[in-house]
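Known limitations

Structure tokens in this collection are predictions and should be treated as such. Users comparing against experimental data should check residue numbering before alignment. To illustrate the layout, the record for Nitrate transporter is reproduced below. The input appears on top and the generated tokens appear beneath it.
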Amino acid sequence: MSLTVADAVDYKGSPADKSKTGGWVPATLILGIEIVERLSTMGIAVNLVTYLGGTMHLASSNSANIVTDFMGTSFLLCLLGGFLADSFLGRYKTIALFALIQTMGTGMLTVATSLPQLRPSPCHRHDVNCQPANGFQMGILYLALYLIALGTGGLKSSVSGFGTDQFDEKDDKEKAQMAYFFNRFFFFISLGTLTAVTVLVYIQDEVGRIWAYGVCSVSMFIAIITFLLGTKRYRYKKSAGSPIVHIFQVIVAAIRKRKMDLPYDAAMLYESTSTPEAMTIQHTQEFRILDKAAIVTEGDFEQHASCSAPNPWKLSSVTKVEEVKMMARLLPIWATTIIFWTTYAQMITFSVEQASTMERTIGNFQIPAGSLTVFFVAAILITLALYDRIIMPLWKKWKGKPGFTNLQRIAIGLVLSVIGMAAAALAEQKRLTVAKSVGRNTSTLPISVFLLIPQFFLVGAGEAFIYTGQLDFFITQSPKGMKTMSTGLFLTTLSLGFFISSFLVSVINETTKSNATAQGWLADNINYGRLDFFYWLLAALGVINFAIYLNCATWYKPRKPKSAIPMETLHNGYGAEDKC
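Generated tokens:
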């Protein structure tokens, strides 16, 4: 067995020694920075809606949209982070840089929430004379939030990929460890979320937001120092360049040759002789329009000092074309998982708003509204533990496979989210009945907040399945050189889910107002609204989406790169010398 990792180097650029680099120790240091990122981002997000409404005096729908836009932007910026990691910085530098940016953002948020000049005068937001925050005050808040979003985007695009880099896929022992890394990864970041929705939210409500956000800044700074201490232990994998550029090269080459006919024999398509045999991918019949990028024509090669090489914007190898096809095959699954995260968005916005109107006391202790998401996180942890310790061993014994496939886990997550929205609608109907009987302006309704537990638990259990399923699917089913981009692609489902939530809230808010006095489904005071109708709408959309997903999952055929023999010489004479 080799003592070095073939495709990885150490911090000096030498082949990575297995005994001195990689494994669970450096992977744990990488997990540590992700735990703190979750602590900061979720600690801010789950309780932000109460700050926007109670302190900044914004309407419920506006507050919800600010939270979902913040979260959506965080995950959308993962594409930027992935591009920088692949093209310029590498995963290690990307993590360090964007962790520092997030530290700056949380520090600025600490200042923004502590200075009286940066928030409006105290009042009850439903009073006629209560003034919301002005443009300057909201501008400072936005600047802090979107610095945090930028930091989150850069971090999340590289953390999971850099973690898997610490394990050698060609080593059976390390490959088995990497298989468990995905579940461990999500389990530990869920611990960060759990700390955020309990300890951090309590500090925000009972001690002060300045202290809570200060904890976020200090924790991230410590995490950065810890991360840097592992520099000598990490394995670094060289980037093959931006996969986005490679994708565009294939598309441009295919468009240039769109009027040409494909050869009758796929063996006549171009394959680079410089591509290692183990890295080549066999030709497939899907998306044949892209195969035209591999047709060799006059002028496709450029002459260099002692050799000729193909112009990548005019000619792509079969392997490059097949890599783009692999990414294209991911898109239907990608599109049908977005609606789950639209459902998820309600757990940190309107569900928290519901909780703020309900009885939350246990003895002399009052549970912060934002801390109700503890049941959401608990569901994730319990589900992962049961799956890891009970379901996987039983499934392996029964079916001979170590647990559900990634597509099966995604399907389970989608089903649970639909049931969760139905439970949320029923709970809201009960809450509104109580509000109507005792008076809609009652600040605390005589109904227990624990009525909301089923919706948190069902959607939380759904996230445990769908997050691990998506992460596994997008990393294992993508080409080797595009794993960072595929992670970013996965995280855009979260981003689009939040943005769709904002879009739906805006549309529903406008269309359900019958006149100037009617408040619609999503009223500023939710006791006057019909939030249950909104939840039923999301449940219906979830059912339709699940039906589409089943068709996409049936169509999808899992593929992994397979070895193929490169063509040494093509019939037209090109390709014999393409290695400079």
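For this record: The radius of gyration is 26 Å. The longest strand covers residues 4-9. Please report discrepancies through the issue tracker.
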